[in-house]
Amino acid sequence: MASNLIVWIELVDGQADPIAWQAMAAAGKVAGDLGGSLTAVVFGDGVGETTRQAIEAGADRVYTADDPSLGRYRVEPYAKLLARILEHEPPSVVLMGASTAGLELSAYVAALAGAGLAPDCTDLHVEDGRLAAVRPALVGNLVSTVTFRGTGHRCVTVRRNIFQPADPDPSRTGEIIEVPAVLSGDEIPTRVTSVETADGTVSLTEASIIVSGGRGVGGPEGFQPVRELADALGGALGASRAAVDAGWIPYAHQVGQTGKTVQPDLYIACGISGAIQHLAGMKNARVIVAINKDADVPLYKYAHYGIAGDLFSYLPAIAEEVRKRLGR
């Protein structure tokens, strides 16, 4: 039996989060084998441009709800509206990015619609005509493959920077279905009173340059030269699980299977051995540079360039040269 795919296009400040197009790419990967159509769902205030982009990204149809009450994501109106749409759809795979909002929304919709749920997936494929979702389990110590019983809806979220979106096709056309919001502003139990953003930091998942430290930095103070090089390059600061588990740096900086999955143009790994868990989060970087005193660590097998030396000697020198050349 064919299964349609429905992708929620997440908006942040009125613009599609890149993870939405990655979810579209994940849907496109399995759409042919599942034999159904590809539908996008866009909620917000002023969504015309995003609707067009969804069609260019591969959607055959787009459900749009354009209403001021949907201007900022809130789980109650979004979940109830998506569940209402699903009431009129045949059993489908509902895909979205595994962002904070996507993880919350998918769980809420699965509860409302009585759907199966596979969160934070790193791969999708089709086995015997059924969707199979691959996801880490037990804090990344094993990888499980999830399949779904029955014929109802299935909700899946995909991890950021795993699926590579195709180039948009401006020649594509599709059906646009306008739907009204199901809750008025007064009926929504939550309010967004303010939005605070972190200034002066570079998003790890969106950074084009990442400098990461691992067990080899030796302690919290060992991250100082790593941080200085990241700042000199205008990049983000990353870390291995070992460094995070040791309490040297907050979890928000962790790169790996149980942390962030990244795909920068340049990834500089300092004092990182290259365990499978870490490689799963950064192996798709365009250029990988390894700096480690031990020339036999596994990461050197994947690195494009390597420095077998003391990171505390090399990092300050590299940072100084970078600042000199970039005038910083």
What would you note in describing this structure?
There is one protein chain. The chain is an alpha/beta fold and 328 residues long. The protein folds into 2 domains: 4-187, Rossmann fold; 209-326, Rossmann fold (3-Layer(aba) Sandwich). 28% of the residues lie in helices and 27% in strands. The chain contains 8 helices and 17 strands. It has helices at residues 18-34, 48-56, 75-86, 100-113, 223-233, 241-245, 276-282, 311-326; strands at 3-8, 11-12, 15-16, 35-44, 61-66, 92-97, 116-121, 123-127, 130-137, 142-147, 154-158, 175-178, 209-213, 236-239, 266-270, 287-291, 305-307. The strands form 4 sheets. The protein has a 7-stranded parallel sheet, with helices on both faces. α5 (223-233) links the parallel β13 (209-213) and β14 (236-239). It is elongated, with a radius of gyration of 22 Å. The mean pLDDT is 93.
